[in-house]
Cell division control 14, SIN component (Lojkania enalia), 292 residues
Amino acid sequence: MEALLSLAFDNIASKDTQKIRKGLRQIEGMLAQICLSSGKSKPSTPQHRRNASAINLGEQQSTPKKLGALAEDPAFREFFRLQDGFEWNDCLERLLGMTSSKDGQNDLLILSALSNLQGLLLLHPPSRTIFGREIYMNILLDLLDPYNCPAIQSSALLVLVTTLLATPQNTRTFETMDGLLTVTTLFKDEETTQNVKLKLLEFLYFYLMPEAPISSASAPNTAMGLQRSSSKVVGAFERGSNTVGVDDGGGAARNHIRTQEEKQYMLAKYLNNVEALVQDLQETAPFTSVAY
């Protein structure tokens, strides 16, 4: 796995869009192998596996792995170990700095990078702490600018939610970077598509939820979006993670928490009728399966 990641990172560090695409697909294939149980598949040689750009899901009957099976999965354990020592790469930042092509190839690369990033952050919650730094939070907010296509805006919102899950310090960075202004401005823009506006509304519901710090034992809950955790997966996260930013007992992280009323007051600076959003949130409880 380490050799595959090294090869993938060499590709995404390239200025050649074809190599970047290949590197992103190699990472996507690795994440798919971790998350999916393969049925019958064609055998391949070690050389073919090493250079494969992605798993050909069309040739494999794959189903999502059971949550409890992850802890016993050597691939998941190796991924978690490597990600604990992961040096953050600047692929997404460099893609944003690339000149947009008329055929939309750069947009496709950004979408692929965002998809991989969301999967990585769900599988390895400690990696979310990188977005407590303004430089990385700013990249996501840049993707919400009106000049980006609706697909990128929607994908960026999904990644943004993932970065804020059970990580109050990231939410404070989001607020400091005028994230609420960015989100509400896009919501009120007449050029914003209805689909993006719906996702923006869902994000605001999510933002207004009560906050709680995450502990290493509750990491699988957040990563998989489930109310019940598996003791086996808990063990995998506890043994595999000692990354700074995952609060061991809630002490440091609780200093970053704001109440729902405080967040309601902050959002009301940019949006009218926030009280109705809060009331609807309390009545419908749309995110009861996610620990925020």
